[in-house]
Amino acid sequence: MITLFHHPKTRSTRFIFLLEELEAPYRLQRVTMRRSDGTGAVDPANPHPHGKVPAISDDGIVVFESPAIALYLTDRFPKNRLGPLADDPARGAYLSWLCYYTSVLEPAFMSKFMNTDVPRGTAGWVPVDEAMGTVIGLLSRGLYILGKHFSAADVLYGTTFAMFGESPLMPKSPVVHDYVQRIVTRPAFARAQALDDGG
Ligand SMILES: N[C@@H](CCC(=O)N[C@@H](CS)C(=O)NCC(=O)O)C(=O)O
User: Fold this and answer.
1) Ligand 1 pocket by C-beta < 6 Å: which residues?
2) How many whole angstroms separate alpha carbon 48 and alpha carbon 58?
């Protein structure tokens, strides 16, 4: 049984969405966390090394960091084919775009949010317009990050774009708008929103 260490309206909400998509057996364990307004505290029950969410425990096997959790869960619960397995030619793209999400895209948004330049040749990411240009190009060629098929990568990208849809950080793009609609109209997304505050 999977335990999802969760705090409402955070990066852990998207893993309720993924677990619902996977039809995996799971329970939510609501934890406290440090908040941007200075309130809150690390919850000693949360196994993430910095007390962040999400983290999961699979009967004692702990996994943290969103791409690692997505990969672990789609390997562990392959029934609904939400992540290409090791012998699938799409595996390389899957691993790449999962890692790109936290290694390139999130830092790119954070640089823009903090109004800091991205040092070329030093930073491991690129300016957000370059990163989003790449992602928009990808989504112009297919319905989802991996092309024809919805995968756990879309849980990361789609929920982020849904959340920042109206933000000045996000370039306006009909491609992204249509993509977000495909993600947020999935029944599992609605179930996750209903369960977000603990059900
Ligand atoms: N790199 C982590 C980021 C997780 C993260 O920063 N989560 C926020 C909530 S959205 C958090 O737990 N913040 C509390 C803190 O920073 O102590 C991931 O992608 O899983």
Assistant:
1) 10-11, 33-34, 50-54, 65-66, 102
2) 14
